[in-house]
């Protein structure tokens, strides 16, 4: 973390959040694009409600900073980050639905299905998911079409069957939603449901930078460690956090009967695991020298966050 003070890191994080917000605002405007027939107002309002004015934009930040290691133009990285953020926001809309986590609050506001209705929320999530792949294939991201192909394929795999969506169904199975007593692999669920999108934020920079195999592996290892640290920190916040700071009810995992890192490792064991993961993340990107300072700070931010 040497070379990046907490205040400098916070400024960089806020700057990327502001830039991502502005970019998403443009991407979610009412302007009709080529090959689109219309942008229905109710749908666009719902998509904007759930993707603007909220969040730390950590995932786009990881794209921007991992790409910066290779000197990639910020505008290109921000587009990839916006695509990733659309996937993340869609997942939150669907996670909050009555059939999933049945949440009333998100970022201190009513969840989308509470603000509107279930059907609108489902379709807004579908819209954001689809828009993500429109964005990530755009020519402005990279002149090499193969780079755009690799970014798109990686995003599909991190977001889909073998990533976030697969992790979600394993999580529901762990709650006993489908009957039976399936074994619960918390680490595997985390790697898929939460970790996969965070990992994508890191490997996207390597793909944009046409990194060597060694460089790609370094960012992959970093992303995996950061993703697990993020989930453990989230589990700890659910036990120890303040609902006002979280913007959603604390204790939700216990109420749903979820098995988490905290239930498996205990609070102190979970905190030690986070410390071990921080060391792993730091080591993984040490091959980049000073260029990795912001990424090392990001891992510490993830581990120490309060919401």
UniProtKB/TrEMBL annotation:
Keyword check for Translocase, yes or no. Answer: no
Q: Known SUPFAM superfamilies for this protein?
A: Terpenoid synthases (SSF48576)
Which molecular-function annotations from GO does this UniProt entry contain?
metal ion binding; prenyltransferase activity
Give GO terms for biological process: terpenoid biosynthetic process
Q: Does the keyword Metal-binding apply?
A: yes
The protein's matches in Pfam families, at most eight in alphabetical order, are given as: polyprenyl_synt (PF00348)
The cofactor required is:
Mg(2+)
One CC-aspect GO term? cytoplasm
Enumerate the InterPro entries for this protein: Isoprenoid_synthase_dom_sf, Polyprenyl_synt, Polyprenyl_synt_CS, Prenyl_diphosphate_synthase
Query: What are the alphabetically sorted keywords of the record?
Result: Isoprene biosynthesis, Magnesium, Metal-binding, Transferase
PANTHER family on file? FARNESYL DIPHOSPHATE SYNTHASE (PTHR43281:SF1)
Protein family membership? Belongs to the FPP/GGPP synthase family.
What name has this protein been given in UniProt? Probable farnesyl diphosphate synthase
């Amino acid at each position: 973390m040497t070379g990046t003070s907490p205040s400098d890191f916070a400024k960089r994080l806020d700057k990327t959040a502001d830039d991502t917000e502005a970019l998403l605002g443009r991407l979610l405007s009412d302007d009709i694009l080529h090959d689109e027939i219309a942008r229905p107002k109710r749908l666009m309002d719902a998509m904007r409600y759930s993707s603007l004015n909220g969040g730390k934009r950590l995932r786009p930040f990881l794209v921007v900073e991992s790409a910066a290691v290779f000197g990639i133009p910020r505008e290109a990285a921000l587009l990839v980050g916006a695509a990733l953020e659309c996937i993340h926001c869609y997942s939150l809309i669907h996670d909050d639905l009555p059939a999933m986590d049945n949440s009333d609050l998100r970022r201190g506001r009513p969840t989308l299905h509470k603000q509107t209705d279930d059907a609108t929320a489902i379709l807004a999530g579908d819209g954001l998911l689809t828009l993500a792949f429109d964005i990530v294939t755009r020519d402005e991201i990279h002149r090499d079409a193969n780079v755009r192909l690799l970014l798109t394929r990686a995003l599909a795999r991190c977001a889909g069957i073998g990533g976030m969506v697969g992790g979600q169904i394993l999580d529901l199975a762990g709650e006993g939603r489908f009957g039976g007593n399936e074994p619960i692999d918390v680490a595997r669920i985390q790697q898929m449901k939460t970790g996969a999108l965070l990992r994508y934020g890191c490997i996207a920079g390597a793909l944009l930078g046409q990194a060597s195999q060694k460089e790609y592996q370094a960012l992959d290892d970093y992303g995996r460690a950061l993703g697990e640290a993020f989930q453990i920190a989230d589990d700890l916040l659910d036990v120890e956090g303040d609902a006002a700071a979280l913007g959603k009810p604390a204790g939700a995992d216990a109420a749903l009967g979820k098995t988490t890192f905290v239930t498996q490792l205990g609070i102190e064991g979970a905190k030690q695991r986070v410390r071990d993961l921080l060391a792993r993340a730091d080591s993984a990107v040490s091959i980049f020298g000073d260029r990795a300072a912001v990424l090392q700070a990001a891992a510490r931010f993830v581990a120490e966050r309060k919401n």
